[in-house]
Amino acid sequence: MAALVKIGVLILIAAAVCQGYQDIYDFDGKKLQDTDYVSLWPLPQKVQSSATAFKLSSVNFQIIHAKGSSAGSSCSILQTAFRRYFDYIFGYKKKQNTKWEPKKTFGEAVTQLQVLITSTDSECDGFPDPKADESYELSVDQPAAMLKASKVWGALRGLETFSQLVYEDEYGSRNINKTEVSDFPRFAHRGILLDTSRHYVPLKVILANLDAMAWNKFNVFHWHIVDDNSFPYMSRTFPDLSQQGAYHPYTHVYTPSDVKMVIEFARMRGIRVIPEFDTPGHTQSWGKGQKDLLTPCYSGSTPNGNYGPVNPILNSTYEFMADFFKEVSTVFPDAYVHLGGDEVDFTCWKSNPDITKFMDDHAFGRDYSKLESYYIQRLLDIVSTTSKGYMIWQEVFDNGVKIKPDTLVHVWIWWGEGGYKAELGRVTSAGFQTLVSAPWYLDHISYGQDWQNYYKEDPQDFNGTEQQKKLVIGGEACLWGEYVDATNLTPRLWPRASAVSERLWSDKSVRDVNDAYIRLNQHRCRMIERGIPAEPLFSGYCRHEYKGNL
Ligand SMILES: *[C@@H]1O[C@H](CO)[C@@H](O)[C@H](O)[C@H]1NC(C)=O
Fold first, then answer.
1. Which of ligand 1's atoms lies nearest the C-alpha of 177?
2. 167-180, pLDDT tens digit by residue?
């Protein structure tokens, strides 16, 4: 009798101590419902869950290729993903979260997740492209759950969803409810921009953030790899660019094998890598290793030792660009390269007498945007010969440069009449595809929950026809690097960028900030469990707190 009472008390204590994954409070300090299992992020298009819970145990659970799948053990994307997700599910990823697990499970268990690739071409050996099929169907039942996707890209997204459905009960064992999910992204292009020029970002940090991107179903890494401040990209054709232009020629560079590793790591997670080589502005670091590339600035009639944007009047400039972008097009497999074209300062061009003469010869008057257009036009023609598509910042479009019909116009300016929405109207009525970043400059920080502002934006919420809205193919959250390096990049990005990930993946109707708050808290705790120091949304705690990287 006494023993029985003791066991009862123990169970009560255990239940009281471990109850709840995380208590969540609203802004007035009111405790919200316990939401152990409601932690899907971004929310799938369609979820049907039930109150039937199954056990999941690391000793008898496996993720395997389904019979009849067009992908098998030679598909390294899936093989490595199976291992990765097994580890996430059972908390093996980081030593800091060693978890106690009962050897025996009680009740019905899910013992397999079978992954079926239905298309004859699984795309296992390929790179994700702008048309990658990321849709999937997930059916969780016992004894086997089934994940069905046409391509590996959908399977990757489905594996993430499956792992998010798993929750820990009060005794520390893993559960998953009977669930049906049918899912696909609302937008094809869902990106993160990282800037590795203002500060050098170590490879390890880039890779960790690619992982976090996959947990948020982001699929584009926009690598703003060089800028005024430094040129860390190591070029085989022009080694002096990084030799002279990087912060340090050996320790602060991305070697060809570093770049390869980033691209392959991203591919394994269904993420495209789009490099940005921004010209003719933002190029001070280029000038250090490439003589005569930049425009000499004048004071009166003599050069003053300063340099401006790329010199658009020399043939050598275009010969260099042709060789350079030929290399870029072979190093980066993606169908697109970002050519920048933003914020060109005309002061130096105005000061230079040779430029003035060139303007006169070409009847440009004193309209320097015509000179900018002249340069961009020639650059676009050069890049076209590499058979890459290009993305450009909106100024190129605004200045009336002739661009190819498949050009992606990247909208980033949030000020001015009508804000960025007016620009979306202009770009799409001209028939161009566009991409939104204007409301998602995550380098701008402020007190409070700014993620809610990001969450409330909608890329298709502008005055335009249905046809125009279809031209919005997605967006990117940008984390510019002036105040960001390895010490604060990751917590500044997550979970704030997650707000953007749900906006770009989930249905338009998913807009409830309170519901998002609850799920995002759980999602943030999950990122922490997987080893990412994602910052808090507000007061509260995670069941498994971040323990640092000591
Ligand atoms: C999962 O199952 C548990 C146990 O039956 C139930 O309490 C809970 O509401 C279910 N969760 C969902 C999201 O349906």
1. 1
2. 988 888 899 999 99
